[in-house]
Design goal:
The complex is a heterodimer. By secondary structure, chain A is mainly alpha-helical. Chain A contains 13 helices and no strands. Chain A has a single domain, classed as Orthogonal Bundle (ABC transporter involved in vitamin B12 uptake, BtuC), CATH 1.10.3470. Chain A has helices at 4-31, 39-55, 60-82, 87-107, 109-112, 132-158, 161-171, 173-178, 183-209, 219-232, 237-257, 267-285, 307-319. By secondary structure, chain B is of the alpha/beta class. In chain B, α5 (119-139) crosses α6 (155-168). The radius of gyration of chain B is 19 Å and the shape is globular. Chain B starts with a strand and ends with a helix. Classes of the chains: A mainly alpha, B alpha/beta. Chain A binds chain B through residues 156-157, 160-165, 167-168, 170-172, 174-183, 189, 235, 293, 295-297, 300-303, 306-307, 309-310, 312-314, 317, and chain B through 52, 54, 73-75, 78-79, 83-84, 86, 90-96, 98-99, 102-104, 106-112, 115-116, 119, 122-123, 126-127, 130, 134, 143-149, 152, 165, 169.
């Protein structure tokens, strides 16, 4: 990269796209304790739907809506059998789903260009006469406006009685079902919303980079998104976005600095090791993530009167 | 008053070779306060798990308000008006004490679309139900903690929270699994006074597993005694206390 600013802008755009993925995983894992390791699958589906539709000369708005629709339907359908599984089995199933999807894309050339992928995907907003840098800024504006919308949707969901039930399911499924909540139904709904958001992120990704191939959607994508959520703080949407920035930042920075470091090991490994060390450190010293979940009454609660008492009690607990 | 609210007919539940419940038949009348005692491992909690749908019985039937409820999912049974508490408190650690209570109420904002688009309806509901929640917390001495994460409560307080959670959902019957385990004696007595009050004023049937015999006997109308998956005695507290089998397996020679 000749222009460092371009590199930075590109990183910012990536962080935005992954921020959407990270928020969606946060809704599933952070709030509902669904270990969805199939993020890459839905991300890929969104990207490929957009790419194929773009080849048929449909505008981005249609493509992305279709991506959302199809990924949410597929998400709901896969969740029907998959969500009956316990956490770790669900994780394995979802990784497999991603791999199977990738194999299908790789082997069906008529559908999506096989291993060569699809190129020449039209970007969402084409304003003639812009320089490359200006186009990047337009892209960033688009990505971040969608990120903000996703953020507010998630915040809205978790700050309702509905969100409280999601947390109940996270804490204890048996309590949730004993107190009349159809746990399975809630899980499917969350999974569907999460998949739809991942599909949207994929759609943005495809129109942003213009060329996609199956190798972009390795399971690593899923793990990177998991890293973002765990670093940033599960059950905190701002944390999830912060995590996306951090992981993306570290990856980019280590890619830059490895050229300036003289180390007796392959600099490519350095990036991986550095990220790993960071994740382990955070999990060790701050298992709740950088931004903790806020355990507090949500809006509309008029009980300010009790709040000072609560402070008293807390100090009392510490003393004893 | 004499119609049975909960009837179990020859329930059997096996775990591998262990027969946890071996032909339990019981009937609880509406508005009664009934105790269930028995040695550890006699199947009391398993029976509760079957009645509330967490386990499916291998054979036998359960009727609640003359509807068959065995085989239903726990959440369906809740909507029929039967709730339970847990022996080891299952509280929602990373939620406030108040939220721990509020989840157990049927709320218009429980469903996805109304939660997002009908904010006014559930906000109003929340306001009303919150007062009731605070009232219950106040009775159990937890009102100071209402915004504390439930994980910070002590063991006994968690136990109280369990009871509060069952009370607020206004069921027609509550199964209480050792409501006073880990609670100090004065408060334990208060709990029973309150349970009795609830039973009389709100017309809630109570079915209580308890090891504090003296306490239980003073308040309940009827007691069932379980031993090795069977009901070995049932009747008025005075009669049961003097039953030879019961003394042998549970109370010991005094």
């Amino acid at each position: 990269m000749a222009d460092p600013l371009m590199y930075l802008l590109d990183a910012v755009a990536y962080a935005g796209i992954f921020g959407i993925l990270s928020i969606s995983l946060n809704l599933e894992y952070g709030y509902t304790n669904l270990a969805n390791f199939g993020k890459a699958a839905f991300f890929m589906m969104g990207a490929y739907i957009t790419a194929i539709m773009s080849g048929l000369k449909y505008p981005f708005i249609v493509n992305s809506l279709l991506a959302i629709l199809i990924t949410s339907v597929i998400g709901a359908l896969t969740s029907l059998p998959a969500l009956r599984l316990k956490e770790d089995f669900l994780a394995i199933t979802m990784i497999t789903l991603g791999e199977v999807m990738k194999l299908i894309i790789k082997n069906e050339e008529w559908l999506a260009g096989g291993v060569w992928g699809i190129s020449g995907i039209a970007s969402a907003i084409t304003i003639p006469g812009l320089t490359f840098r200006e186009r990047l800024i337009v892209q960033i504006a688009l990505i971040y406006s969608i990120l903000i919308v996703c953020y507010f949707i998630c915040e809205l969901i978790v700050k309702t009685p509905y969100g409280r039930i999601l947390k109940t399911i996270r804490e204890d499924e048996i309590v949730a079902s004993t107190y009349g909540k159809n746990v399975f139904k809630y899980k499917i709904q969350v999974f569907t919303v999460g998949s739809a958001m991942s599909g949207l992120a994929g759609s943005l990704f495809a129109q942003y980079i213009g060329t996609i191939n199956p190798y972009m959607f390795e399971p690593t994508v899923t793990f990177v998104v998991w890293m973002m959520v765990i670093l940033g703080g599960p059950a905190n949407n701002l944390g999830a976005i912060l995590g996306a920035f951090m992981v993306e930042g570290i990856q980019r920075a280590s890619r830059l600095f490895k050229d300036y470091l003289n180390l007796p090991l392959d600099p490519v490994n350095l990036q991986v090791m550095f990220t790993a060390i960071l994740v382990i450190t955070v999990i060790f010293y701050r298992p709740q993530g950088l931004l903790k979940e806020k355990i507090k009454p949500y809006e509309g609660s008029p009980h300010k009167i009790i709040a000072p008492k609560f402070m008293e009690v807390k100090s009392w607990i510490r003393r004893s | 008053m004499d119609t049975p609210i909960l009837t179990a007919e020859s329930l059997v539940k096996k775990f591998g070779g262990l027969i946890a419940i071996n032909g339990v038949t019981l009937s609880i009348k509406k508005g009664e306060m009934v105790g269930l005692i028995g040695p550890n491992g006699s199947g009391k909690t398993t029976l509760f798990n079957i009645l509330t749908g967490i386990y499916k019985p291998d054979s036998g039937k359960v009727f609640f308000n003359s509807e068959r409820i065995d085989g239903l999912q726990p959440h369906q049974i809740y909507h029929k008006g039967l709730v339970r508490t847990f022996q080891t408190p299952r509280i929602l650690q990373r939620m406030t004490v108040l939220d721990n209570l509020l989840i157990s109420v049927k709320n218009p904002g429980d469903k996805f679309l109304p939660a997002l688009f009908k904010r006014r309806s559930w906000l109003k509901f929340e306001n009303d139900i919150r007062d009731k929640a605070l009232e219950i917390l106040e009775f159990l001495g937890l009102e100071k903690y209402c915004y504390t994460p439930a994980a910070e409560l002590s063991g006994g307080q968690m136990k109280l929270l369990e009871i509060a959670r069952a009370l607020i959902s206004e069921p027609s019957m509550i199964l209480l699994d050792e409501p006073t385990a880990g609670v100090n004696p004065v408060l334990a007595n208060d709990i029973y006074v309150k349970l009795r009050e609830i039973k009389e004023n709100m017309d809630i049937t109570l079915f209580i597993v308890e090891h504090r015999i003296e306490l239980l006997m003073g308040y309940v109308d009827k007691v069932h005694v379980m031993h090795r998956g069977k009901i070995i005695a049932e009747g008025r507290p005075d009669d049961v206390i003097n039953d030879e089998d019961v003394i042998k397996v549970y109370l010991g020679y005094v």
